[in-house]
Amino acid sequence: xxxxxxxxxxxxxxxxxxxxxxxxxxxEWMDAAPMSADQLADASGxxxxxxQWQINDNQQNANVSDNLLSGNVVTGDNSISDNAFxxxxxxxxxxxxxGNQVVxxxxxQINILINH
Length: 116
Description:
Blueprint: H1 3-21, H2 37-43
């Protein structure tokens, strides 16, 4: 599918989403009461939430070519210590490579749905 068609589909979907539900700014949520542990447990797994459509698009292209390794080629070691993620918060991405002439591509898509 061409890039132009994809952008038109995304724009149409966004127009439908915002036209049907309206736009909510972050300030409107500032006075919202936090949910209790029981409310959160009851809402897990999208229970009671109608079907939602999401479009995610990711394009990655890479090429390794015409490379030559010669002589004493050594690859490295990968290790992650016991507390490597001890103070981590949020979403972490870890990529390790012990090879030579490697292209590593990574992407993370996070979808957050808030119904009001």
